[in-house]
Amino acid sequence: MGNETRREPPLRHFGARAREGLRGLGSALTTPAAAGEPLLGGAGSRWVRLLPYVVGVALVASLLPVTVHLLTQDYGVNGALAGAVATAQTAPLLLAVSRPLQAWWVVFAGAVLGALVTLASDGSRAHLWPWTPPLVIGYCALMVALGLRESRRALFGVWLATGAAGYALEALRPGGRTTLHTLLLVLSGVLLLLTSAIRARSDAQRRLVEQETISEAERSRRTLLEERARIARELHDVVAHHMSVITVQADSAPYRIPGLPEAAREEFGSIAASARESLAEMRRLLSVLRSDGGEGGELTPQPGLDRLQQLVEATVRAGVPAELALSADLGEVSQAVDLSAYRIVQEALANVVRHAPGAATRVSVRASDDGWLSVLVVNGPSAEPGSAVERGATGTGHGLVGMRERVRLTGGFLDTGPLPDGGFRVAARLPLRPPGAAAGGGTAPTPLTDSEDTA
């Protein structure tokens, strides 16, 4: 009992390995090899990949001497000629592992040659004609290799050539028995049909996997669009309500609060106008989020450099002493650069309002001779240290990230950082034309200096 107990784990291990090997062999047999790849070349197990070579060597080693003996003893063929015919009929089985169609041509020619050699034979096996029993065995093995590799058109041509050659040879020997000819024709047809069906099943499974992959990508895209639509709805529900309240309060303030000075009325009017503009822009962006890329949102004009003066004036009304130096002749500016420059100045001024209220700010926009647009926003230290606005700012850094992304998309350069006196500097260079738009375009820009804030 003790010895049996000790032997049980190795037997279990051997059984598990055997089952695993059989599953791997079955998977390899149902996965036809690609062109140029040996049969079962995609199997994970090494012994499964070597199996076609082992079978080929075994067939050649057994069929070659049997064919020579049969031709010399039973068909009365000369020994040298019998050896040549037997080699042509069996040796190409080794080639069938990687090139079965080429191997079939050689075997087929050897089979026809053997039939012609034995045509006038009157030996004891002369009635087994035009094919010999060893040839039938090797030919069937070759049909399996062909069916797993070649197209249905090629397989039909092989089967048709086999039948036509058999019937043509039969016509040369009237009255001869054609048992092996009929047997080979039926067996080759069945084997080619089965193996081609296996190949077709594998191709269908591969296409199914490809379609599932495409479907998964479509599902991911649909999920993304649904998530974007959900975010758009939430943004609209949360932000639009508050922006609408601000607009209503600012518009109604002169009527609700009697005796407001004219400056306060203008300030409330500016707040209402800015709120309405922000609300309209937010709705335009949300329409883009709701779309799937095939249809855009509202086709309203985007802000550009021509609105920088209004932007700076709004910043001044917010309590920041800002001044603008804008070149009178900027030349032709692409729409992407025009919008990016405006957004960079807008974000830079918004950061000044949030983080350095009351700081003197200079905005400079000019075009250089080398085809680049220089945008520079420099502010000094805050005039209200410890102000509520400054303390309440969270400083997420999303604004700077957005600037870098815009500059990168246009092919420009961005440089930001604090100044020794406590201020901050945002410097950008954007190409006036898309890269490569004209021969001999602008050269790489040089870093901006603080002195470049004049027109």
From TrEMBL:
<dbReference type="InterPro" id="IPR011712">
    <property type="entry name" value="Sig_transdc_His_kin_sub3_dim/P"/>
</dbReference>
<feature type="transmembrane region" description="Helical">
    <location>
        <begin position="178"/>
        <end position="198"/>
    </location>
</feature>
<dbReference type="Pfam" id="PF02518">
    <property type="entry name" value="HATPase_c"/>
</dbReference>
<dbReference type="InterPro" id="IPR050482">
    <property type="entry name" value="Sensor_HK_TwoCompSys"/>
</dbReference>
<feature type="transmembrane region" description="Helical">
    <location>
        <begin position="127"/>
        <end position="148"/>
    </location>
</feature>
<dbReference type="InterPro" id="IPR003594">
    <property type="entry name" value="HATPase_dom"/>
</dbReference>
<dbReference type="GO" id="GO:0016301">
    <property type="term" value="F:kinase activity"/>
</dbReference>
<dbReference type="Pfam" id="PF07730">
    <property type="entry name" value="HisKA_3"/>
</dbReference>
<keyword id="KW-0812">Transmembrane</keyword>
<keyword id="KW-0808">Transferase</keyword>
<feature type="transmembrane region" description="Helical">
    <location>
        <begin position="77"/>
        <end position="96"/>
    </location>
</feature>
<keyword id="KW-0597">Phosphoprotein</keyword>
<feature type="transmembrane region" description="Helical">
    <location>
        <begin position="50"/>
        <end position="71"/>
    </location>
</feature>
<keyword id="KW-0902">Two-component regulatory system</keyword>
<feature type="transmembrane region" description="Helical">
    <location>
        <begin position="155"/>
        <end position="172"/>
    </location>
</feature>
<protein>
    <recommendedName>
        <fullName>histidine kinase</fullName>
        <ecNumber>2.7.13.3</ecNumber>
    </recommendedName>
</protein>
<dbReference type="InterPro" id="IPR036890">
    <property type="entry name" value="HATPase_C_sf"/>
</dbReference>
<keyword id="KW-0067">ATP-binding</keyword>
<feature type="region of interest" description="Disordered">
    <location>
        <begin position="432"/>
        <end position="455"/>
    </location>
</feature>
<keyword id="KW-1133">Transmembrane helix</keyword>
<keyword id="KW-0547">Nucleotide-binding</keyword>
<keyword id="KW-0472">Membrane</keyword>
<feature type="domain" description="Signal transduction histidine kinase subgroup 3 dimerisation and phosphoacceptor">
    <location>
        <begin position="227"/>
        <end position="292"/>
    </location>
</feature>
<feature type="domain" description="Histidine kinase/HSP90-like ATPase">
    <location>
        <begin position="340"/>
        <end position="433"/>
    </location>
</feature>
<feature type="transmembrane region" description="Helical">
    <location>
        <begin position="103"/>
        <end position="121"/>
    </location>
</feature>
<keyword id="KW-0418">Kinase</keyword>
